[in-house]
Amino acid sequence: MREVLTYSRRGSRFTPRQAEAWAAHQADWVIPDEAVDRADFSLAERFGREAPLILEIGPGVGEATAVLAAARPDHNVLALEVWRPGIADSLWRVAEAGADNVRFCSVDAVWSLEHLIAPGGLAEIWTFFPDPWRKTKHRKRRLVNPANAALASSRLEPGGAWRLATDWADYADQMREVLDAEPTLEGGPVERWAERPVTRFERKGLDVDRDIADFCYRRTT
């Protein structure tokens, strides 16, 4: 059984626009949770092609997903999001952008890295504004920890990038400490990635004067 450690599910009620997008695109672009447990599951089959794979962990409502995926039509983008209304919002955004190279799934990111992605199978990982788990007692649930960093790095191809952003200063400190300590990664803080659009999560941080920290680490071996 999969353990849920790095997220909590929220409400699943759709707005009319979300319901319309779900009805139009869910069958083609959303991978059912139960599908990944089948012995014959194939990501390439779900995308309808073999192509370099990018993993986005927590796309939210797809603001960055749509823009970044549309700019990379030669890549497959697997977006892991557990909030169904967020997926529904993302569906109309990627459709509007013409980004038909995106597939969504609601399965836990750590389990997916372990079981769905082959070692060296990722060109990039995107993790923008992950849940900061602000309470001290909950910080153990943060995605970026030593074990998960080692796992994520093992799934990157040599030279593959893990791009991250957060508006929580102590999470930024944790990201840097953890990823600096991972021997198969090199990198650190970088200027804001120009290709990444300003999302609502980033705007919320800016509205309360939080600094945005961007990181890029690459697999070295």
TrEMBL record:
S-adenosyl-L-methionine binds at residues 56, 81, 108, 131. It is an enzyme of class 2 (transferase). InterPro entries: SAM-dependent_MTases_sf, tRNA_(Gua-N-7)_MeTrfase_Trmb, tRNA_methyltr_TrmB_bact. The lineage of its organism: Bacteria, Bacillati, Actinomycetota, Actinomycetes, Propionibacteriales. This is tRNA (guanine-N(7)-)-methyltransferase. Catalyzes the formation of N(7)-methylguanine at position 46 (m7G46) in tRNA. Substrate binds at residues 135, 167, 199-202. It catalyses: guanosine(46) in tRNA + S-adenosyl-L-methionine = N(7)-methylguanosine(46) in tRNA + S-adenosyl-L-homocysteine. Pathway: tRNA modification; N(7)-methylguanine-tRNA biosynthesis. Keywords: Methyltransferase, S-adenosyl-L-methionine, Transferase, tRNA processing.
